[in-house]
Amino acid sequence: MLGKVSGTSLDCSPVSGLVWANNIYPNSSGTLTFDLSAPNHNVSVSNASFEFVEILNQNMQAIFIMFLNELVTAYPFIKILGINSSPESTYHFEAAPDFNGNYLLYSQNGDFESDPITLTLKAALSNPIDDLYPHLGGESLPPQMSIHTCGLHEILA
Asked: What domain range is 73 assigned to?
């Protein structure tokens, strides 16, 4: 298990996640299921989910941003640049559109200290009609998508 070791490098490869921003969600409500592991914060949850309502015909970028807002509200130790962290502060992930019009949750190497977080988005175990996960990506979307950061990225003044 990765742990917090201040001032040392961490043997870790960050993994980012892609959302097809222009996919349109065809239902009025939906649920996004996830696992979250943050060993330095004693957090390990499986098959958690957030439900969203009044999302008919919204694009997946808007719905994913709603998910990220819910995530940092429920787990405030997670810092996402563009959601709950400013460019002048430390952050684990960066949320931003890419050059192809998609939306990415970039992970960081963690140059300041080791604070690993793994977020796994996945297909719902029940009620596939309201499952948001299949709408995040294209036809090649795997049954789950893990996004892993190796720690906090520190912005030095």
From this structure: 17-152
In a domain, 11, yes or no: no
Which of 120, 96, 102 is CA-nearest to residue 20?
A: 102
CA–CA separation, 21 vs 62, rounded Å? Answer: 8
Per-residue tokens: 16: 């980012």
66: amino acid identity, one letter: M
Give the chain's domain count. 1
Both structure tokens of 70: 């819910």
Angle at 96 between CA 109 and CA 12, to 5 degrees: 15
- 12 in a structural domain: no
Is residue 86, in this structure, part of any structural domain at all?
A: yes
Q: Is residue 121 part of a domain?
A: yes
Give per-residue pLDDT as tens, 18-50. 888 888 999 999 999 999 999 889 999 999 999
In angstroms, the CA 50 to CA 41 distance is: 20
Provide the β-strand partners of residue 93: 80, 107
C-alpha gyration radius of the chain: 16
Please state the separation of Cα 46 from the chain's center in Å.
Answer: 14
pTM for the full predicted model: 0.85
